[in-house]
Amino acid sequence: MTDVQLYFAVGVPTFTVLVSLMVGIFQLNHAVAQINLRFATLENRMNSMETRLDARMAVIESDIKTLVRLFGDFDTRLARLEERTAR
């Protein structure tokens, strides 16, 4: 066996393993980037949903305050009517 044959016998498999490792690393980095992108998208959607939910809850809270005020007015009116009819 000549020196060139030895270099090819050792070098080609080593080079192949190194290239396959590099390809695997690039694929892993790409997969991680895709996962990070999906999580960022999910986070943006969740923040959007939270903002909309906060707005809806503010409207509901306002409506509840209005209803409580109206029931208080009705209670006051009813109390006055009861006082008038009790005499």
What topology emerges from the helices and strands here?
Layout: H1 3-86
**What is the molecular shape?**
rod-shaped
Distance between the termini: 126 Å
Helix content: over 70%
Global mean pLDDT: 94
Number of strands: 0
The class by helix and strand makeup works out as: mainly alpha
Number of helices: 1
Give an overview in words.
With 87 residues, the chain is mostly helical. The chain contains 1 helix and no strands. The longest helix has 84 residues. The protein starts with a helix and ends with a helix.
Key features?
single chain; 87 residues; mainly alpha; 97% helix; rod-shaped
Short description:
The chain is built from 1 helix and no strands. It is mainly α and 87 residues long.
